[in-house]
Predict the structure.
Amino acid sequence: MKLKLSILLLAISVGAFGQKPAPKTEQDFYEIKTLPIPQDLYLEVGGLATMPDGRLAVSTRRGEIWIVENPYQKDSHQTNYRRFASGLHEILGLAYKDGVFYCSQRGELTKITDTNRDGVADLYEPIYQFELSGNYHEYTYGPVFDKNGDMLVTLNLAWIGFGEGKFAKWRGWLVKIKPDGTLEPQSAGLRSPAGYSINDEGDIFYGENQGDWVGSGRITHLAKGDFAGNPGGIKWAKEPNSPFKLTLEEIPDNSQPMFEAAKKVKNLKLPAVWFPHAIMGISTSDIIQDTTKGKFSPFPGQYFVADQGQSKVMRVFMEKVNGVYQGFCINYREGFQSGILRERFGLDGSMFLGMTSRGWGSTGKDNFGLQRLVWNGLTPFEINTIHAKSDGFEISFTQAVDVKSVKNAASYALRSYIYQYHHQYGSPIINVNELKIKGISVSPDKKTVRISIDGIRQFYIHEFILKGVLNEEGDPLLHETAYYTLNQIPAGDKMAINESSAPVVEKAAIAVVEQPKLAVNGKKQIVTEAQALALLKKHTCLACHAKDKKVIGPSYEDIAKRKYSDQQILALVYKPNPQNWPDYATEMAPMSHIPANDVLKIASWINNLGAKNKVEPNRD
C-alpha cells in the first residue's frame, strides 16, 4: 500500500512540475495599495500634492482640501485625514510650493496659506479670476509650475451639444499666470484638458479625450502659439495678446484626417501620440513623466497616462524625429477602484492616484478613491521602446527574445489607420491598411528587433500586435499590443532584404470557430452568448458596456428593453444618438468600421436578452 501511495505521489509531483506556469499578470509586478477613507468623507479627488514632510494633500470636487497623514502606510495600514480648507468651488488642481498651496477653483486661481501654522488655512488670496458663464462643463485645471515659477492653467470648454468657449474668456486655452496675476495666453484648441505636465526638457504635454473635433484620445506637445484642433475657443484669438490669429472659417470641416487640415492651418498641432478609442482608454486624464530614476517603474523617463473612464494607467514612450515628438502607447496597469483623474509621485517613488466618477462613470465601481501604485522591482517581459526607421521600426524588449518566434511572420499582426477631423463627436477609424513585413533582424544581445515594413505611412497610427513573440524562456509579452503614431519618417539606411533577414512564413493552424448564422431558410437563428462575447471583445465594446450592469454606457439588458430592431441597432452603432441616453455623460463614438454582419449578430443576441424581459416603448 505504501509503495502504491509513493508511486501516486511521485506521479502527481512529476505532473505538477511538468506543467508550464500560468502567464504573468500585471499584479505580479505592480501592486495597487488602497488608502482607507472615512465613511463620512466624500473624497472625490480633483487634485493631489505630495508634501516634503511625508504627508499628502488632496483637493476635492466638493471644494475642500484634506491633509492625509501616513499616506505611505509605513507603520500601519491606518491613515488620518484632517480638513485644511473648505468653502471653495470644485478644486480640480492642486500644487504645493514653499509651504503654500495653490489651487484652481472653477473661477479662480487661489493661493492658500496657513499663517499661524495650526494646520488649518486662514488666508485665501485670489491670484487670477476667470470668467464663467455658469455652464456645468467650464472646468479649470492646475496649476503646474514652470521653471520660472509661473503657473500654467488649462480651461475647459463649455458644452451645449458641442464644445463652446465664447461665453467666457480664454475657455479652450492653456494660459500662463505670473505670481503678480498677469495672464499670458499660450495655446488654444483644447477641449477638455484635464491633465498636463512639463517634462524634463521643459516641454508641455496635455491629454485630450474624444469629443467634437477629437476623433480619439491623444496627447499633444504644446508650444506657445500652437492650435491643438478644437475651435471652440477660437474667438479669443482675436485678442491683442493672443499668440496667433485664426478664425473658424479657416478650419476645414470635411472629415479628412487632421494632418490634411494641418497643411492649410499652419499652427495646427498634430498629436504626439494617439490613443485608439476604447482600446487605450476612453477619457484621457493626467500625464506624468517617470523622473524617479528607477524607483517607480522599469521604464525611467517614459510617461504614464491615466484614463478616467477605464480606471487604468497606460505607458507612453516618445522620441523626437526631425524635431517632432512621436511615439507609442501601451497598457500598464488596470483595476483601480474608480476613475483616475490625478497622478503624483510620492517621496518613495510610488505613484498616488486620485479618483472620482460621479457624473462621468468609470469601470472602477467606487464613486471615488485614493490608491498607490508600487513596483516590486521585478521586470516583466515587455516592449521597452519603439523607434521609427526609414523603412519600418526598431523594437527593443526588456528581456532577450526567442529568435525563432520573432523571425516568424505569423508572430505579428500589423496595420495602420487614422481618424477623421470634423465637428462631429469622435470618429471611426478610417483608411485601414494591413501591413506586410519584408524583413526582420535581431541584435546580438537578442533584445532589439528591427522590422522592415511594406507601406508605412506618415501621420498614421501603426498598430503592433505581437502575439507570437516570446522570450528565451518561452513566456509571452505581458502586453502584446502597442500603437505608434508616425508623425515623421526618419532618414537613414534601409534594411538589406536577403536570406538572413527574410521573415519565416509558416502556415498557421487556423482554429475553427463556429460562426452564427443570422438566418436559415428564412428563420432567424439564435446567437449564443459565447459567440456574442467574442465579437464584443474583438471590437472593444466591453470597454464601455456589460451584459447586466452600467459601465460607461448602458448595459445590454437595458438596451434590450428599448426593443430596437437589429437594423436600428446597426444604424445607432454607426451613427449614435446621445439623446436616446441622456443620463450618460460620455457620448458613444461612431463605430462604422465594425462589419455590419458582426453588428447584426450582436444585435440579435441583445434582442434575445430582452425576449423574457418586460419591454419599454421604442425611443429611437
Notes: The mean pLDDT is 92. Residues 200 and 570 are 47 Å apart (CA to CA).
